[in-house]
Amino acid sequence: MRFLLIEDNVKLAQAICDRFALEGHVADHADCLSDAELSMRTVAYDMILLDIMLPDGDGREFLRAHRSANNPTPVIVLTARSEVSDRVGLLDLGADDFITKPFDFSELEARIRAVMRRFGGVANNSKTFGDVVFDTTSGSLSVAGEALQLRNREMRLLEVFFGTPGQIFSKTHLMDRLFSFSEEVSENAIEVYVGRLRKKLEPSQVAIETVRGLGYRMVLEQ
User: Class of 126-220 per CATH?
Assistant: First the structure.
């Protein structure tokens, strides 16, 4: 997943970004609303983590504008306010969830999983395609009944393909999902990760197919 973290506390933001990186996620950090809006014009994010009190404005106004523009990207608000009225107000503005500072990272990760399950209309983190079962939380993969373990970026790449099987994803799109603005990588990196996934999927009915000139898609072989 690729996150946009809008938070002016640099220490907290770095800790969150480092934690996500350990899990193979990508997090772009914006310390103000103007930088956040610029990032959103550049990249399509899976989720936004939003602070309220920011140097150039109120996160609630950002949230109101986000929903008024019919942007469906889930938003979890990071707030120091614990009053019920404040939390109700955030939900009414369109927040998908909130977490009160200070918080434990494991709780934040659990809330992210819960929001993404609701957003995707599923009850759990396990997804099945053909004879492949993929658990997005544990990173476990069952291929034709054989249990395999994925590395972090292999897991995040497979998440993309499992999200919409059959859809073609360009190398540029896949790079956006796997790497942040600060990482300098070439499209060859995508070829490497796709190659690793293909080897793990070989015993199954599932394949990652190259669509010449366009990118890759996950399909069921006949």
Answer: mainly alpha
